[in-house]
Amino acid sequence: MPELPEIEVILRNIKYSLIRKKILYTIVRCKKLRYPVSHKIYEIKNEKILNVKRRAKYLIFVFCSGYMLIHLGMSGSLHLIKINKKIDKHDHIDFIINNNKVLRYRDPRRFGLCIWTKKLKNLNLLNNLGIEPLSSNLTQDFLFEKSRYKKTKIKNFLMDNKIITGIGNIYSNEILFDAKILPYRMTMSLTLLECKILTASITNILCESIKLGGTTIKDFVNIDNKKGNFYKKLKIYKKYGKECYICSNFIKKTFINNRSTYFCDFCQK
DNA sequence: CCTAGACCCTGTACGC
DNA sequence: TGCGTACAGGGTCTAG
Gap from A259 CA to B16 C1', in Å? Predict the structure, then answer.
């Protein structure tokens, strides 16, 4: 489920609990994720976590001898819990931190991944990614230029990880509502002014969500098992048939690339 | 090259 | 209650 803000919230929650701690050993209960769990993950012994970073929706654990990448897919979650906590059927990997703490990876749909790599360079998963939306690389000029040659709808453009990373289905809906742009318009029709507005909306929506601890739709909980509060601020996502809070017209729903898409065709142009 | 659509997998909600 | 269907936050692969 998690999109960029949820991963960022998880990162901020675990980073200082894990940095400079050792993973004593791991327990892998299910190795069949999006890719098989790397063999090295089974064999981690007393590896010190030097740092934890994020790139797109990937969490990157930095060790002396290499890097561990975790992606949570659609339904993944991480839990920093006491070691004797009851194991759920979808708790696939435990990272034993010490005698009473474990970082537990849970993922019912198993669209996530946990892999080991010696070097981050040459890793295709990371090499083909676009810019970070919360970096200074995101500008109106960047969006304007990238949108010139795209023959796709604006919502697809926003969700294209080769251009900008981390914007998933929920936030693309919210961002386009905030920017007052219809999701099914063609990308090339974006004006420079709209790119400026879009830039601001991306920044504002993502930052506000991070500040509130992410979104909870179904099963997202951050690392302390606390639910994110951004779902209270959702203005358009999952609001089909309800009144737009700005103009009171009914919110509509369609599918773009098989992903549910909500919009107000009075507010959004 | 590019884009749309199928697919990976399990859980839940809903209609009959 | 039970069964079938549609849908769910992501990303990759392939056919056109």
Answer: 27
Look over chain A and give the mean of its residue pLDDT values, rounded to a whole number: 92
pLDDT at residue A57 tops 60? yes
Q: Which of A57, A104, A146, A239 is catalytic?
A: A57
| A252: confidence class by pLDDT, cuts 50, 70, 90 | very high
For residue A217, the model assigns a pLDDT of 52
**Secondary structure in 3-state letters for A19-81:** CCCEECEEEECCCECCCECCHHHHCCCCEECCEEEEECCEEEEECCCCEEEEECCCCCEEEEE
CB-contacted nucleotides of strand B (7 Å):
2-12
* Strand B lies under 7 A from the Cβ of residue A104: no
A159: tokens are 């969700």
